[in-house]
Amino acid sequence: MLEGTLVAITLYDVAEVISLDSLRAHIADRVRPSAVPLASFYRQPLIERLPPIEFPSGNIIDAEIKFYDFGNISVSFSRPFSGTWQDLVETASRWIGSAEFEKRSRELVQERVQRHADCIDKPFSRWIDEDYFVFRIDPIDGDVLREHGGDIAQIVRGENQSLSSAERSEVLQSAISYYPKDLAVIGWNAAFVMDTESGAATSLQLLEYANSQLLEFRHYDGLLSAELERVYRLLAGRIGFVDRWTMARNASRMQGVLLEVTELTERAENAIKFLSDMYSARFYRLASIRIGVPDYRRLVAAKLETAQDRYEYMLDRFNQTRALFLEVTVIVILLIELASVLLGHR
After folding, report:
1. Cα 220 from Cα 80, distance rounded (Å)
2. pLDDT for 23-43, tens place per residue?
3. Structural domains counted in the chain
4. Is 173 a member of any domain?
5. CB 194 within 8 A of CB 144
6. Which of 46, 176, 230, 322 is the most buried (most CB within 10 A)?
7. Residue at 160 is within a domain
8. For residue 181, which of 192, 194, 167, 191 has the smallest C-alpha distance?
9. Which residues in the chain come in under a pLDDT of 70?
10. 112 near 118, Cβ under 8 Å?
11. Residue 65 pLDDT
């Protein structure tokens, strides 16, 4: 019989910044400390305890909300698990395919955003989200990968049916362990973890943080796409003399976006350097790859390079316009002075 915990995490990108110090004063009686404070490669989120929540299915599930200072809010639902491998396979398929978690978590986040609006700077009108599932079991004897690799692959993929040998091998390539009786198999939207509850706490935090990084890169991918579309539309149209003066404002906005994306990229690249042990660094690197953070980072980097080129081009156009305007102004002044001299001799 397997014993463990099921966890469903949904993250939302709701604003540019959340003031954790201001928010702490609002929810001081419900704040709980982080179970495992990680090395300070990012500021620890503020965690709000919630009472158990009853879902339409009748399940009573524990919940908590985390507020990140870079504008993300995550909702975690968890409940104990006890059953066979087949029970876990079926439960994983049900959880991953369920819309209940996203619906309920969005309601909870909307309530907090409205209630704590004074703590949220530059809220977004539209949110992007990421969900992730972790299926943890207590350590058991035996060669778990060899004996139950097929079950684990189904759990990570959320599939009820057996997978092909090729697909199973692809899933199990992401296995990582440190001690003989711990194991993690990481997928793009779910992970299987065999460890004690306390031992798995750091892994859960790293999985959530990797998803928050993916969310941030997705946000800037959308932002850069919108900025580039605006620039292309501006440059493709017929630009009048007056319109050219708006290029400085557009270039300034683009430069602000470039700085924000550069800061995010550096934070993501430096995150591993500040982890307290090599296993956590390996785990985070593998998690970020499987979740897709490097893919979005490369996508954003390509758009960033294009945006930089457009930014420089826009500045050149603006400088040309300004130089032309100054030349015309000088000529007009000379003509006025010449006219006044000629009229003065009459």
Report:
1. 37
2. 998 887 788 766 555 545 567
3. 2
4. no
5. yes
6. 46
7. no
8. 194
9. 33-42, 237-251, 264, 267-276, 314-315, 317-324, 341, 344-346
10. no
11. 96
Domain assignment of residue 275, given as a range: 211-342
What is the rounded radius of gyration, in angstroms, for the C-alpha atoms of the chain? 27
Provide the pLDDT for residue 269: 64
Same domain, 246 and 334: yes
Q: How many CB atoms are closer than 10 A to CB 10?
A: 23
In terms of Cβ atoms closer than 10 Å to its own Cβ (0-12, 13-18, 19+), residue 157 is buried
Do 234 and 245 meet the contact criterion of CB atoms below 8 Å apart? no
* Residue 88 CB neighbour total at 10 angstroms: 23
* Residue 142: both structure tokens together: 């035996």
Among 106, 138, 170, give the residue marking a domain's end: 138
The pair of structure tokens assigned to 201 is: 């706490």
Confidence at residue 38, expressed as pLDDT on a 0 to 100 scale? 55
Write down which residue in 92, 110, 138 finishes a domain. Answer: 138
Beta strands across the sheet bearing 2-18: 31-32, 46-54, 60-67, 72-83, 2-18, 120-137, 190-194, 183-186, 175-176
Residue 281 in domain: yes
Question: Residues near 310 by Cβ (< 8 Å), separated by ≥ 6?
Answer: 228, 231, 232, 235, 254
CA atoms of 60 and 56, how far apart (whole Å): 10
Six token digits for residue 217 = 């890169």
Centroid of chain to Cα 133 = 15
Straight-line distance from the first to the last Cα atom of the chain, in angstroms, rounded to the nearest whole number: 112
How far apart (Å, rounded) are the C-alpha atoms in residues 85 and 137? Answer: 10
Whether residue 91 is contained in a domain is answered as yes
Give yes or no: residues 215 and 327 share one domain. yes
| Residues 134, 243 within the same domain | no
